[in-house]
Amino acid sequence: MLLQLNNIFKWVNSGGQRIFLLKDINLQVEEGEFISIMGPSGSGKSTLLNVIGMLDTFDEGTYDFLHESVHSLKEKHRANLYKEYIGFVFQSYHLLDDLTVKENLEMPLLYKKFKGSERKAIVADMLDRFNIVGKKDLFPTQLSGGQQQLVGVARALIANPKLILADEPTGNLNSQQSEEIMELFKKLNEEDGVTIIQVTHSEQNAAYGSRIINLLDGRKVEI
């Protein structure tokens, strides 16, 4: 078992009322699964992804990740856990504009204390794998949306995460680029055994998953 959410609730207080973002979510994810989370805007998809990725806390329930009780960990320990095992791919790239492509890719390796020579080799390998060697010294603003997303995916993968969390990973891409990214995820999942959880509006992208979870108003719904 990679992770397990039990009876997760998350809410905000507004005008003396509780507004629930997540209601009683139960989810078990085995290593090597490929899961798609779907639902209308405001249904809690990104919130759920952020809770799984430990970027967001919750108000009630328990969360176990690789047999660690996330809900009872101190923030620093939690941060170490997700830096070690989780790679994020965001729709809006989240690249650092003042760093070059090469430096953006290197960031996760610095967190993991790789030696300089190792970092160079791993970054070179990634640039090659994503056909972006020629872009290594450019800044994100000098790249097209598709290229920025490729760099975002490369950065998420560079430290060999066990789990990739992708929030609308092809939201800003054309259909050919979308397909390339989804095929890449499929390959990572099937050949490298990386667990993937993606949030998507696209039926086509969702179909890459072996399981689809539907959310409505913060609840899991069976379709």
Low-confidence stretches: none
The dominant shape is globular
How many strand units? 10
Secondary structural class: alpha/beta
The gyration radius over C-alpha positions equals 18 Å
Instruction: Report the end-to-end length measured between terminal Cα atoms.
Output: 25 Å
Q: Supply the CATH class.
A: Alpha Beta
Structural overview:
- There is one protein chain.
- It is built from seven helices and ten strands.
- By secondary structure, the protein is of the alpha/beta class.
- It has one domain: P-loop containing nucleotide triphosphate hydrolases (Rossmann fold), CATH 3.40.50.
- The longest helix has 18 residues, at 175-192.
Defining key terms:
Rossmann fold, six-stranded mixed beta sheet, four-stranded antiparallel beta sheet, 35% helix, globular
